[in-house]
C-alpha cells in the first residue's frame, strides 16, 4: 500500500516571470506575483494558499536569485496567517542560476521529488494566476490526479468566456475510459486571430490553455528523456550538484546548459500522454491591465479602483494609485495606474501594448522600466526619497531580528536617524544603541552594521553624502545572508 506521503500532491510553483504587461506596478525587480492584485494576499500567496491541507505536501517553488528572500518571506507570512501545522513554511525554494523557461524548471522539480518518491503527483502552476472557484479547482485537480497516476500528463483547459486571442487553445478529443472527466488532447493551437477564436468558442471543442499541468515525477522524467534528453541531462547534473544555501536549494551551474524552452514545446505538443481536464474555475492569467479589470470588483459604472482614487462621470475604467491622490473625470474604458515614480494612462483596448512601452524605456536606459524606488533585501527594504548632487536620502526599514551586513564604503559617508523602533549600530569598535529620534554619523571608510533587536520594524532615514552614491560602493566583511 502507498504511504500517506505517496498520496499527497506536490504543488510546484513557478515564480520566475517578470510580468511587464502590468507595468508600472510590476517590474523585473518586483514582478506581479509579489503584489496583492485581487485580495490582501499577494499572487504568490494566493497560489500557495490553494494547496494547503491534508491532500498536499509542502510546495516546491522555483525562482531566481534576486527574488529568493521575497518568496521566503511571503510564504512565511502566509503560513503564520493560516495557522497550518504544515504548509508553505515547509516549502523547498529552488534557485535557478538563470531563468531557462518552464521545461528546465519543471525538470528540476521532478528530479528532486523523484529522489524520494517516483510515483508522487506534481501539480505544476504559475505563481501569478487567478482562480476564483476553489472547490471547482480542487474537483478538477482530483480528476487530473487520477489520470496522472495512470501515466498521463494532464493540463487544465479553461472553458472560454470570450474569443480571446491572447491565449493558446486545446482541442479536446474523446473522454478517457479509465479517467472520467478527462479527455485526450486532439491538438494544441497557437494564439489564434479573432475570427478563428470566435470559431473555437462557437464550436465548443476548444479550451483555453491555462498552463497548469498534473503528472507524476516518473512520467515527467520519462517524457523529458524521450523528447529532450539533453535538457534532462543538464538539469540532472545541476540537481546532483545542488547545495544548500540558508533555506534555499541552489542548483548547479550545469543548469545553464539546458535549452530555454517551455514545457509545452518540449513535451506537451509531442507526447502521446497528453490529456486535458475541462474546467470552469474563474481562471485568469492576469496578463494585462484589461484582464485585471475583468476580474476586479466594480462600482455601478463598472469602474474598478484601488487606492486613493476619486471618480467623476467615469465609466468602465481601471484606476489604481499606490499613494498619490488620483482624480479621473469623464473618461471611459481607460486604465490609469499611478506609482510613486511612474504613471501609465491608456485605453483599455491597448492593454497588450504596455510591453512595447517597457521595451522602449529599456532601450533608452530608463531605470523605472525595471526597478522600483522601493528595493527589497533579505533584511527588509529601502526606498529612495530624494536624489541630488553628491547626496541622496533614503527610508530604510529593517524587520525584527534582522541585520545588515558588516560593511564599509569608499566614496560616501552616512547619517542614520531612527524614526521608529530601536537599532544597535556597530561603528568600528563601538556598539551604539539608538532609539526613536536619535542618530549616528558614519564617516567615510568606517566599518559599520545595523541590527534591529526589537519586536517591531525599525524605520530610519539615511542621508548619504559623497562623490559616488551607487549601490556597488560597498565592501562586505560579514553577511548573515551569504552575500558577497
SSE layout:
Elements: H1 4-7, E1 10-14, H2 43-49, E2 60-64, H3 68-82, E3 92-96, H4 102-116, E4 121-126, E5 130-131, H5 134-148, E6 153-158, E7 169-175, E8 183-189, H6 194-203, E9 206-216, H7 217-227, H8 229-240, E10 243-245, E11 248-250, H9 263-268, E12 274-279, E13 283-284, H10 289-295, E14 304-306, E15 309-312, E16 318-321, E17 326-329, E18 334-338, E19 343-347, H11 354-363, E20 374-377, E21 380-388, E22 391-398, E23 406-408, E24 412-420, E25 423-427, E26 430-434, E27 439-442, E28 448-451, E29 458-466, E30 475-478
Parallel strand pairs: 1-2, 1-4, 2-3, 3-11, 6-12, 14-16, 15-17, 16-18
Antiparallel strand pairs: 4-9, 5-13, 6-9, 7-8, 7-9, 8-12, 10-11, 18-19, 20-21, 21-22, 22-29, 23-30, 24-27, 24-29, 25-26, 25-28
What would you note in describing this structure?
There is one protein chain. By secondary structure, the protein is of the alpha/beta class. The chain folds into three domains: 4-284, Spore Coat Polysaccharide Biosynthesis Protein SpsA, Chain A; 298-362, no CATH class; 374-478, Jelly Rolls (Sandwich), CATH 2.60.120. Helix content is 23%, strand content 32%. The strands form seven sheets. It has a six-stranded antiparallel beta sheet, with no helix packed on it. A five-stranded mixed beta barrel has the order 6-9-7-8-12. Strands 14-16-18-19 form a four-stranded mixed beta sheet, covered by helices on one side. A hairpin with a 4-residue loop joins strand 18 (334-338) and strand 19 (343-347). Helix 4 (102-116) crosses helix 8. It is globular, with a radius of gyration of 24 Å. Residues 1-5 and 82-88 have low confidence and may be disordered.
